[in-house]
Design brief:
596 residues; alpha+beta; Beta-lactamase; nine-stranded antiparallel sheet; 16 helices; elongated
């Protein structure tokens, strides 16, 4: 781990303490790479798939302890070349994964949304370059900061400018599921960047696109997908409504699936419902996922009436700036890992991981599902067997960067410090300067090149709070020894000082609990919980302000001769500690319960 990242993590921990390149076998032997007419990377390969099944099985055997259960399918535009299921859908009871096992698609679901958008664009009901407010109820969006309108292309390209927001997305209680419209109205993230300037996609943006599909089609989103994608393709083992009620068989099968963390510890409860299904709510067998993915290789697909729509879908909608290489294909990302036009995306939920990748030039693809959250051994490793990897000429260059796909306002604003890291990659990327801001462009997100001064206020503010914590621990301990053990302590304002210092700890204790369990917060806690926590910190912050005023009054009223200079200095430090604690509470948005 790099020096700056270590420093950031040390700061966060301080609060808590109060808290395959040359060696990989590939089957796509790259002969040439040229620039195609649409300015995307294009390759001509000699591909041998005869032994792909055996190689996958050998890979699984070598890594069999890496995951609980996994299914994989390799296909071309004519047939399925290989499909296999491995491991267990229930490890404790040794229930094997098979063709009937259903798993979550996660963000692979987003491709369904973008296909739906393109279907409606084909019908003239959506203009990809029009202001999305044309398709929404009047005054629906109250989070727009910039005059430049947000278009459907901005949503597709992840550059609408909205910050990340997981609040309220998930619930473990089926009765707590809310409608897509209600979620989008009540959980609008701040717009941080002007549309088209910074790529930092959010689930909320895709959910908004799904809501537009719902509005212009005059059908519930799940019903639209069922009628226009699932049924035409014969996908009888797929469901996408938040409660999976659009397919009872899938719903019951999903309840039987056990899910696991990367250490293979079972996740309980095993089902998490997503309120914004257009961004990640699909569940299906590997067979139905394969059926959908194969259709994306079919130029005469049943998904569109006009072949030009298919061609448009797989024409870049955004490019890597200085190279002119296609970056995003109307919602699907061009992989930066492979020296081919490989597009698609991966996905993760609270219990599953998935991946869908297709090679547009060689008309071959792969889909993978596992019942392990944030799994990488198969999700990232198996495609390496199929596609030739790219190695950047800039592989030795490193940059200190900020990943803008994070919280930048609200209760979890402090997590932006953990988004500062060192970028160094063998994958394809471009370094550009836009409006005086240097950034790294890679799949799915930009990385803003930063210097220490860019986050100096963050570090200084948090550092001072850490100093307050240290001062509080020492002073309370020393006061306890003097007053309770040695019986020599001066009791003038002692109770006020102790109470004030203890009060400065409360926001930190609350945030320590929140950050400690943050991996589960995004998946399991509601926005109401976040607002309640922030409201509690607001009350504590108000209490600290009152303590400051009381201390100031008492200091002014206490006869000067009754206080030693050292005692005066101590009480001034306590007052200063209160000010720093209050400032941190405001600066990090901890006490601003009105921010959603």
């Amino acid at each position: 781990m790099k020096r700056y990242r270590r420093f950031t993590i040390m700061l966060l921990i301080a609060i808590m303490l109060l808290q395959s390149i040359m060696g990989i076998r590939v089957y796509a032997a790259l002969e040439t790479i040229t620039k195609s007419d649409d300015n995307s990377v294009k390759s001509t390969n000699t591909v041998d798939y005869d032994s792909i099944g055996k190689q996958i099985e050998d890979y699984v055997e070598k890594n069999k302890d890496a995951t609980a259960g996994m299914s994989v399918s390799v296909f071309d535009d004519k047939k399925v070349l290989y499909t296999g299921s491995f491991g267990y859908s229930d490890m404790a009871n040794k229930v094997s994964v098979d063709s009937s096992t259903v798993m979550d698609w996660g963000s692979v679901t987003k491709i369904l949304t973008w296909v739906s958008v393109m279907q409606l664009e084909e019908q003239g009901k959506i203009d990809l370059e029009s202001d999305i407010r044309n398709y929404l109820p009047e005054n629906f969006l109250h989070n727009l900061k910039f005059e430049k309108p947000v278009t459907m292309l901005n949503l597709m390209n992840n550059d609408a400018g909205f910050e990340e927001n997981f609040m309220g997305m998930f619930t473990n209680d089926e009765t707590q599921i809310i409608s897509l419209e209600e979620y989008l109205r009540n959980h609008q993230p701040a717009q941080i960047y002007e549309p088209g300037t910074v790529c930092a996609g959010t689930n909320w943006s895709t959910a908004l696109a799904g809501y537009i599909v719902q509005r212009v089609s005059d059908k519930d989103y799940a019903q639209y997908v069922k009628e226009n994608i699932f049924e035409p393709l014969g996908m009888k083992n797929a469901a996408i409504s938040p409660d999976l009620s659009d397919n009872q068989k899938v719903k019951e099968n999903r309840k039987q699936l056990k899910t696991y963390r990367s250490n293979l510890k079972e996740i309980k409860p095993n089902v998490t419902y997503i309120n914004i299904s257009p961004a990640g709510g699909c569940v299906s067998t590997i067979g139905d996922l394969t059926t959908f993915a194969r259709e994306l290789l079919n130029e005469n697909t049943k998904l569109f009436k006009n072949p030009s729509t298919y061609k448009k879908l797989f024409t870049p909608s955004s490019y890597y700036d200085v190279s002119g290489v296609g970056r995003n294909y109307h919602g699907m990302w061009a992989s930066t890992k492979y020296a081919l036009r490989v597009v698609g995306r991966d996905g993760n939920t609270a219990g599953c991981s998935s991946n869908l990748l297709i090679d547009l030039d060689n008309r071959v693809g792969i889909v993978i599902q596992t019942n392990v959250s944030q799994e990488s051994k198969y999700i990232k490793g198996l495609p390496d067997l199929l596609f030739m990897q790219y190695e950047s000429n800039n592989a030795n260059e490193a940059y200190r960067v900020f990943n803008p796909k994070t919280y930048q306002t609200g209760l979890l604003k402090i997590l932006r410090l953990s988004s500062i890291t060192t970028f160094k990659s063998k994958e394809f990327y471009t370094k550009v300067n836009v409006g005086g801001v240097e950034k790294i462009e890679q799949k799915g997100s930009d990385y803003l090149i930063v210097d220490t001064k860019d986050f100096l206020m963050d570090y200084v503010t948090l550092g001072l709070y850490i100093a307050v914590m240290a001062f509080g621990i020492i002073s309370v301990f020393v006061g306890f020894v003097k007053n309770k053990i040695l019986k020599k302590g001066k009791k003038t304002l002692a109770g006020w000082a102790t109470g004030a210092l203890v009060l400065t700890y409360v926001p930190v204790i609350i945030m320590e609990v929140l950050l400690r369990y943050q991996p589960n917060v995004a998946n399991l806690w509601s926005a109401a919980t976040f607002q309640a926590i922030s409201g509690a910190i607001f009350v504590v912050t108000l209490g600290m302000a009152v303590m400051f005023v009381l201390g100031l009054v008492k200091l002014l009223k206490t006869p000067k001769m009754s206080l030693l200079k050292s005692r005066v200095a101590y009480l001034v430090l306590v007052e200063l500690s209160i000010v720093i604690a209050v400032f941190n509470s405001i600066y990090w948005n901890w006490c601003m319960f009105w921010l959603k």
